[in-house]
From TrEMBL, chain A:
Species per Swiss-Prot/TrEMBL record: Methanococcoides seepicolus
Cited InterPro entries: ABC/ECF_trnsptr_transmembrane, ECF_CbiQ, ECF_transporter_component
GO process terms (BP): cobalt ion transport
Subcellular location, principal: membrane
Coiled coil spans: none
Protein name per UniProt: Cobalt ECF transporter T component CbiQ
Listed transmembrane segments: 25-57, 69-87, 107-127, 139-161, 181-201, 233-252
Name of the gene: cbiQ
Bilayer disposition of the protein: Multi-pass membrane protein
Compartments where found: Cell membrane
Pfam families per record: CbiQ (PF02361)
PANTHER family the record matches: SLL0384 PROTEIN
Any single Gene Ontology cellular-component annotation: ATP-binding cassette (ABC) transporter complex
Alphabetized UniProt keyword annotations: Cell membrane, Membrane, Transmembrane, Transmembrane helix
From TrEMBL, chain B:
Annotated family: Belongs to the ABC transporter superfamily.
SUPFAM superfamilies documented for this protein: P-loop containing nucleoside triphosphate hydrolases
Pfam families listed in its UniProt record: ABC_tran
Gene3D superfamilies per record: P-loop containing nucleotide triphosphate hydrolases
Protein's recorded name: ABC transporter ATP-binding protein
Classification of source organism: Archaea, Methanobacteriati, Methanobacteriota, Stenosarchaea group, Methanomicrobia
Superkingdom as given in the UniProt entry: Archaea
Keyword terms of this UniProt record: ATP-binding, Cell membrane, Membrane, Nucleotide-binding, Translocase, Transport
Start and end residues of each ABC transporter domain: 5-237
Function: Part of an ABC transporter complex. Responsible for energy coupling to the transport system. Probably part of an ABC transporter complex. Responsible for energy coupling to the transport system.
GO biological process: cobalt ion transport
Amino acid sequence: MNYPEIDRYASIDSPIHNFDPRAKIITFMVMIFSFVFLDSITKALVGLGIASLIYIIAKLPKAFVIPRLKVVFLFLSPLLIIMPLTVDGQVIAQYHSITITLEGVRYSSLVMIRALSAVTLALIMLGTTRFDITIKALYMLKVPGTLIQMLMFTYRYIFVIMDEFQRMWKAMESKGFKLKANRYGLSVLGNMIGMLIIKSYDRAQRVYHSMISKGYTGNPRTIVNFELRTKDYAIALPMILIALLMHTYHLVL
Amino acid sequence: MKEAIRVKGLTYSYPDGTPALEDIDITINEGERIVIVGPNGAGKTTLFLHLNGTLKSQDNTVMIFGKNLDDMKVEERIKEVGIVFQDPDDQLFMPTIFDDVAFGPINMGLDEEEVKNRVKKALSRVGLEGFEDRVPHNLSYGQKKRAALAAVLSMEPRILILDEPTANLDPKSRADLIQVINDLNNDGITTVIAMHDVNALPTLSDRVYVLNGKIVGEGTPREIFSNSELLKMTHLEAPDVFKLFKVLTCFGYDCDTLPMSIDEAVEFLTRTIESGSGHIHLHIHEHTHEEVRKFLDSYNHH
Ligand SMILES: Nc1ncnc2c1ncn2[C@@H]1O[C@H](COP(=O)(O)OP(=O)(O)OP(=O)(O)O)[C@@H](O)[C@H]1O
Ligand SMILES: [Mg+2]
């Protein structure tokens, strides 16, 4: 089956792929936060440029990043229309009582550029590491255990549940069911989702039993061997410096 | 001989009121190969959940190696009893195979070196060397099943409990798995198995318990399969080889014990032919067909 795996390209060889996962998470988080708070379009564009550069270094295929960015773009595109019409400021175009303001255009483009660079960075971060390694890195970074376990089980069982859904769907199609947006179709779909939830509940119980029988007492423990090497510092330091400089260069220069 | 498991007067109903087990008495010696058979819903899985304390009965009814299960610490318990459940997807709950197989040993408090050793050993035992970094959702069903077994073997339990280990496996995987289980038993591990696959049963058991809410039968596979009343009552079947040789006796084949498996059949046939005049003699007399029909009827569910 074809799973939309976030870590499908995690086995490519690139400096970003080989970057220590903990350092990667910290570095990328710093950059994302830095880029999200940039206050001018010029800076935001520089940020987007840097993100694109890292994307090129990471050698991730376009097919991985572009469709996902498209979703973000679609999601935010209402802003591009609404903000120029609603934000007060210098009017640059007018049609009857509808006005478009410069501030509005600026503001909405700023939001869009920041979002695109943040998402690009996040995609590179997740896309260049096997997801289980990302979880372990978070574990090493002392992210609370409950959160780690939630991530872990989501990652593990999302596929099982997708398979289950697919099987149910096939079973229904083989009995001649076609989804139509009418009352009957929706009620069948609702039943199916209900079934899925019950099945998941039963499964959760069985999984819990099997965890107990392996000595589970409430906290997840695992063995992780990550080692920070010189090259990791060599990547992390400049990136973090850039992230900081974007906000503080006027103090330095 | 040491007693590995003793269950005395175990009764259990699920919280919603479903009665599952009634007054179960079972005694299993160390090193024995036990198979538990029974129809769907007989309570096999429920019984197993009691054998390592996942489900608790009201009173102290389960003893493991002479010790009361309820008094044992978690680490101690998982060192004695390991359970492999039916659905491998329920048991591989960690992100990678390594994490899954390491899960038990880590909970036992072993150091890192030892954990890694055990993972390696367990994976090679089930023929999954080098699968450490694989993620469960990319494995085949048979591989998942073996990984689930490895995840229990890594705890090196003295008693190994398997819930339908051979279900849904292709013939080769099934034979491999049976081999692994018997090897483990030869190493001194007590094996307790629930299964519906009667043709594989004789190769995995010295003694059989028949469960149907309560224990309704106990004995060697031969004793159990000779009892057609019991089989009928519990929706069980006898192995095909066993039935075939029983039919042969109606045709005049003379043997005191019936073979349970192909291997045994070959052995018995060789013996009878060699001790006879170099051949066996089959014939039809006036009652033959009646006898055959009567026999088949006694084993038929319809
Ligand atoms: N979580 C539960 N809550 C309520 N009743 C349950 C639960 N699990 C099992 N039962 C019931 O307990 C009885 C015994 O079930 P169990 O799963 O132990 O049977 P089984 O012998 O393992 O069957 P199978 O061969 O189908 O695996 C059944 O009647 C079942 O419906
Ligand atoms: Mg069962």
